[in-house]
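Still learning folds. Look over my entry:

…
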Amino acid sequence: DATTACSAALAKRVDNLALFRMPTSVIYNGIDSQHFADQAGPIPEGIRTPYLLNVGNYVPRKGQDVLLKAFSQIAANYPDLDVVCVGGTDNGSWLHYLKELASQLKITDRVTLLENQSQSSVAGLMKKAVCLVHTSHNEPFGLVLIEAAACMTPIIATRVGGIPEIIPSDDFGLLASPGNGDEIARNICIVLESPSLAKSNAKTYRDWE
């Protein structure tokens, strides 16, 4: 009776296939924001604060390598800052590559790659993070951004797929071109140098959602 998609960007891709007689309707994904925030547990042992957080399966399209390269540009200027990534392992090849990349960039001791964490652990990590840095190359929607909003965590993300639909301006989060480590690094510095503004934007996003 109908075809639906979780973003206008995905709906356009579906319609371009010309498989259906009627246009695709957009029904955005959502979460129980209060429940997600309330279930936050303690962060895993050994995680040092402050840290940047990335949440996404360990597959190439999630672009965690872009975050590691961006972080390597600014790491010397912020010696207390770490990176924490959380994701499903998939077949392990991308995770192995990320470990090798961290070693090549000489940031191994400042990068933690967590696997298959519980939702309460992810929520806890969200609440303690300096910001969520979502560096995906392709994202129909970006549910993790809504989860960050529920935890009032500042957001840096790439301008792909449905993400600009849920981060429509700098009042909600900072966007960068996909694969552009320089832009990601600049946005991280903006958040670090203006923490009160970043938190204010995060609150604006949470209240808007």
